[in-house]
Prior knowledge:
Distance between the termini: 79 Å
Strand content: over 45%
Radius of gyration: 20 Å
Number of domains: 1
CATH architecture: Sandwich
Oligomer: single chain
Protein name: LPS export ABC transporter periplasmic protein LptC
Largest sheet: 6 strands, antiparallel, barrel
Organism: Bacteroides sedimenti
Structural class: mainly beta
CATH class: Mainly Beta
Helix content: under 10%
CATH superfamily: Lipopolysaccharide (LPS) transport protein A like domain
Number of helices: 0
Strand order of the largest sheet: 2-3-6-7-5-4
InterPro entries: LipoPS_assembly_LptC-rel (IPR010664), LptC (IPR026265)
Shape: globular
Pfam families: LptC (PF06835)
Amino acid sequence: xxxxxxxxxxSDSGITRYRxxxxxxxxxxxxxxxxxxxxxxxxxxxxxxxxxxxASIKADTAYYYDKKKLWELRGHVLIKNLQGDRFSTEQxxxxxMQNKVYSSxxxxxxxxxxxxxxxxxxxxxxxxxxxxxxxxxxxxxxxxKIAPPDTTKH
Length: 154
């Protein structure tokens, strides 16, 4: 099945919680394994009760393996979590059965005025508790709060 220019809303307990937008949504239910394909990009938003966007996911390409409940996001993958942290990577997996998100690729996280980078990443599915492998980053330091060394002691 192939659908073009899709915008759909998803509700949870009668409240609209998500919006999915894609140029092309293909479902391959006779393939083994069966999967959904979003090869022209995918954009997902999560709303609060007043329809304000709380979190979002954007990817150049996405695949959903329905039997495994596994998402694979590829290309320029950009995610904003509920806390406003921004994640950027080229490949990300979301395992809904294990409630976890992971990647072995380079990832950059912008959080509260600092950036953390690394290769490899594991997180809960809300992307609020995570571990970054092979990390690097720059942390801002306020020079005015650092006391000069005491040169009077020998």
